[in-house]
Amino acid sequence: MEIALLKALNAARQDRRAAVVATDLETGRSLLTVEGDALEGRVSDEIAARLRSGKSGLVTVDDRSWFFNAHLPPPRIVVIGAVHISQVLAPMAALAGYSVKIIDPRTAFATPERFADIELIAEWPQDELERQPLDRFTALVAVTHDPKIDDPGIMAALKADCFYIGALGSRKTHAKRLERLLAAGFSAKDTDRISAPIGLDIGAATPAEIAVAVLADIIQALRRRPLTDHARCVE
Question: Same domain, yes or no, for 113 and 40?
Answer without folding.
Answer: no
